[in-house]
Amino acid sequence: MQDLNDITQSGQANIIRGISLMTKDMRFVGLFTIIYGVINSLTIIGAIIGVPLIFMGIRIREAADHYDYFNSSGDMNALQNAIDKQYKYFNIQKILVIVSLFFIALYIIAIIAFVSVGVFNQPHEIFSMLN
Fold first, then answer.
1. Cα–Cα distance between 56 and 85 in angstroms, integer?
2. Which of 31, 36, 61, 60 is nearest to 46 (CA)?
3. Residue 37, exposed/middle/buried by CB under 10 A (0-12, 13-18, 19+)?
4. pLDDT digits (tens, 9 = 90+) for 28-82
5. Cα 59–32–14 angle (5° rounding)?
6. How many C-alpha atoms does 2 have within 13 Å on its Cβ side?
7. Closest listed residue to residue 19, CA positions, set 85, 82, 87
8. Is it the case that residue 1 has pLDDT exceeding 50?
9. What is the domain range of residue 11?
10. How distant is the alpha carbon of residue 60 from its chain centre?
11. Number of domains in the chain
12. Structure pTM?
């Protein structure tokens, strides 16, 4: 792996430009993740998903701040902090995906169980009273 000191001037310029573009997108995604989390948190059930979304948005915006500081100062601690915050964002995202897949599987199993028992094939009481 190449040491950061061995990167050419044009390579450094590309890295700086890439980090700058990436941090703008990270802030945008972070802001809307926070907004979406707040909207979800307006209900008690929605808060189960909303609160982790708020933390995700905060983490990705913090990572963007650390990347910007690294870009301007070259401080390796800032780069390590940025990677750490970005890791936390993706870790929370991974957990939410796993939980979502679990609930989707439960939903599919419930639908299959209801269909096999014939719950959806039974006439409703309101229709039987009309006859």
1. 9
2. 36
3. buried
4. 999 999 999 999 999 998 898 999 999 999 999 999 999 999 988 888 999 999 9
5. 65
6. 7
7. 82
8. no
9. 4-100
10. 9
11. 1
12. 0.73
For residues 37 and 50, what is the distance between their CA atoms, to the nearest angstrom? 4
Tokens of 104: 């989707």
How far apart are alpha carbons 13 and 123 in whole angstroms? 70
Give a yes or no: residue 119 inside a domain.
no
Concatenate the DSSP letters of all residues of 74-88 into one string. Answer: --HHHHHHHHHHHHH
pLDDT digits (tens, 9 = 90+) for 92-114: 999 999 999 999 999 999 988 88
Residue type, 89: Y
**Could you tell me the two tokens for 28?**
């945008």
Cα 64 from Cα 27, distance rounded (Å): 6
Asked whether residue 123 is domain-assigned, the answer is: no
Q: Answer yes or no: is 127 within a domain.
A: no
| The residue to which tokens 């939410």 are assigned | 96
* Amino acid (one-letter) located at 1: M
Using an 8 Å Cβ cutoff, are 90 and 45 in contact? Answer: no
User: Is the distance from CB of 55 to CB of 33 less than 8 angstroms?
Assistant: no
The CA angle 25-31-13, to the nearest 5 degrees, is 25
